[in-house]
Design a protein that fits this description.
Elements: H1 4-34, H2 37-46, E1 47-52, E2 59-60, E3 66-78, H3 80-83, H4 89-96, H5 100-111, E4 125-131, H6 133-142, E5 149-159, H7 165-168, E6 171-173, H8 176-181, E7 190-192, H9 195-199, H10 201-205, E8 209-215, E9 221-224, E10 240-242, H11 246-255, E11 261-266, E12 273-279, H12 292-301, H13 310-313, H14 323-332, E13 347-350, E14 353-356, H15 366-372, H16 375-386, H17 389-392, H18 395-408, H19 430-437, H20 460-471, E15 475-477, E16 482-485, E17 497-499, H21 504-520, E18 534-540, E19 547-554, E20 561-567, H22 577-590, H23 595-606
Parallel strand pairs: 2-10
Antiparallel strand pairs: 1-8, 2-3, 3-4, 3-5, 6-7, 8-9, 10-16, 11-12, 11-20, 13-14, 15-17, 18-19, 19-20
């Protein structure tokens, strides 16, 4: 009788043998055809692909004064497949001035694909960056003893002056997220992290080049492969010219020493930012070199938040500077005429509600109401607008109409400035109040927004943009820090006019009110200058001391500069805001301060505000 079990086993063994052969064939195919491991290994033995890093674009102020440039730097790179265990680590560490523990840590991090997703044992990896000239010279003398290690020449940023840190930003090593987002980068590359360096990274960084070097069997460089026919030259980054006026920026930062807040100046005819001061600040040169991480950590832990760009991130009540927007809205909507009179009994008093005001003549029309910064006038205007059901049908429709005017003037949303991190502020709408008051509210409920208090918030940049819009009598350009990019036109975002909903007639009267404020109102200190300045003060209420606020422009006709000043806990707008604004205007329009103004600037610079030790 036939033994079926033997026949079955023969088939099983034969099948297993065939399966093993097939697996080996597939693996052999993958290794020789699909996988490039052997090719990489062969290439790494014969060639060294050396990256040439381009010089990063320089950054200059509007007058051509160099602010940011490059200095040569040296990185130590390693090809792990060549290095392995062939070096004396003790001598290596002594040469570079590092410990054995640091050596092991750097090697471990380099091989960790979570921290270094671009790791390959066949390609150059960054071991240590930004060697000093002394360390580089010592290492170069002994480099032949450390096979697999190479010197990569590149450049690091140098900041000419200890100013404008928030505008310029800084450059640091790429993160894994940067590499994943853009395959241009590999571990050890640098990228702009903040400010202009971040926003214009693609223009500033240039294009990498590559040299293909030929090596012999011992790994020694024998020259360029095919005499450099396949090499690619690095293309330098594009230079940037900023709208910033270096001397104006210096003055602004001087004035804000020992104070918290911001100064922003804009050229109304272009939207170019002339200065952007955020205080407290820091020296941008702290963010260069191997101490960057340590310095950044210390700054980030500082309770006064010097890394915060308050010019675009600080969200404050605009205070009485906001009254200009109310006058524009009420007049365009027909709520008032230039001759409409409203009472002020040291404030707005109605149905048991009181919003206080300082003493001045009353009743009064729009121009003197702006000149004296009358709270009562603008509260009455808002009350009559929101309560006009005959025109708007409901408080909700009236409120949304009001909001549309504010948005058209640049509030409630980001301006779109060419800096990362801008905040939008807050302009409430009907839905906001319906939710807050369950649908039961009226003009009295929200009366404080008429004087720039309550739920209204704005950034100093938005307030400066308001000044520029009034200077232009009804339109503005999106504010921008960069004036020119080498070899390419400026983005049309920054060259297009944005018109507001308010009428030209309304702007003319508001300008008269701001000029009247200089001639005999709350901005009278500006009257001493020989240029025709226009201004509006603000004293924004706060839980502690009030904030000192100013907004203005000059000259009145054909304006060249618009300014906003915001000093936290500075008190009246005339205490810091007006004198700071006047000095900024004089510096820009005259090119320097007079002797009397310089003495005034030194006095204001030395004056400090006691902020206590409260957590900011």
């Amino acid at each position: 009788m036939k033994d079926n079990s033997l026949s079955y086993r023969r088939y099983v063994i034969g099948g297993a043998a065939i399966l093993i052969v097939v697996v080996y064939i597939i693996r052999l195919f993958m290794l020789q055809v699909t996988s490039d491991d052997y090719k990489k290994s062969a290439d790494s033995n014969a060639f060294l692909k050396k990256i040439e890093y381009p010089s990063r674009g320089n950054i200059s102020d509007r007058n051509g004064k160099l602010m940011v440039f490059n200095q040569p730097s040296y990185d130590i790179m390693v090809v792990m497949n060549e290095a392995r265990d062939r070096i004396d680590t003790t001598e290596f560490c002594q040469t570079l001035g590092i410990t054995k523990e640091e050596f092991d840590y750097r090697m471990a991090v380099m091989k960790d694909r979570n921290k270094n997703p671009g790791y390959s044992r066949f390609t150059q990896q960054l071991f240590i960056s930004q060697l000093s000239d002394k360390d580089f010279s010592l290492f170069q003398e002994k480099m032949f003893r450390f096979p697999g290690f190479y010197v990569q020449k590149r450049s690091v940023r140098q900041y000419q002056f200890p100013i404008a840190a928030h505008v310029l930003g800084d450059v640091a090593e790429v993160s894994p997220a940067d590499i994943e987002e853009d395959d241009y980068y590999q571990p050890g590359d640098y990228i702009g992290k903040l400010g202009i360096e971040r926003k214009y990274e693609k223009q500033l960084r240039g294009v990498k080049g590559i040299q293909i070097l030929l090596r012999d069997a011992h790994g020694r460089i024998q020259g360029r492969y095919q005499n450099g026919a396949l090499d690619q030259r690095a293309q330098p980054g594009k230079d940037l010219t900023l709208g910033i006026d270096l001397e104006l920026q210096k003055l602004g930062e001087r004035l804000m020493e020992g104070k918290i807040g911001s100064i922003v100046a804009i050229e109304p005819s272009t939207g170019e930012v002339l200065c952007m001061v955020s205080s407290p600040s820091y020296d941008p040169r702290l963010m260069v070199g191997r101490q960057r991480s340590k310095n950044h950590r210390l700054l980030s832990q500082d309770v006064w938040k010097p890394l915060l760009n308050r010019s675009i991130m600080g969200q404050y009540p605009p205070g009485s500077t906001f009254k200009t927007t109310q006058g524009l809205t009420f007049m365009t909507e027909g709520v008032i005429t230039p001759t409409t009179l409203y009472p002020c009994s040291r404030g707005f008093v109605f149905r048991g509600l009181r919003v206080g005001c300082h003493g001045h003549a009353a009743p009064l029309p729009l121009v003197p109401a702006l000149s004296t910064s009358c709270n009562g006038y603008f509260c009455w205007g808002l009350y009559h607008m929101i309560g006009n059901k005959a025109k708007y049908g409901s408080v909700q429709n009236a409120m949304d109409t009001w909001r549309d005017y504010m948005v058209s003037m640049g509030f409630g949303y980001q301006t779109g400035i060419d800096l990362p991190g801008e905040k939008r502020g807050l302009i409430p709408n009907a839905q906001f109040y319906d939710k807050a008051y369950k649908g039961s509210w009226n003009g009295l409920t929200i009366i404080s927004i008429a004087i720039g208090q309550g739920e209204v918030n704005a950034t100093p940049l938005q307030i400066a943009n308001l000044a520029a819009t009034i200077a232009n009598r009804g339109y503005f350009y999106t504010p921008h820090v960069v004036r020119k990019v080498q070899g390419e036109p400026l983005d049309t975002t920054y060259t297009s006019r944005h018109y507001t909903k308010a009428s030209r007639e309304a702007y003319d009267y508001v300008v008269q009110g701001m000029r009247s404020s200089v001639l005999g109102g709350t901005c009278h200190e500006l009257g001493k200058y020989d240029f025709m300045a226009c201004g509006k003060t603000g004293t924004a209420q706060n839980r502690g001391h009030d904030h000192s606020v100013f907004m203005g422009f000059a000259p009145m006709d054909n304006p060249k500069i618009a300014v906003a000043v915001y000093v936290e806990n500075g008190g009246w707008g005339a205490t810091y805001g007006v004198p700071f604004g006047g000095l900024i205007m004089e510096q820009y329009l005259k090119g320097k301060l007079s002797e009397a103004s310089e003495a005034r600037a030194r006095s204001l610079q030395e004056r400090k505000i006691d902020y206590g030790t409260a957590d900011r």
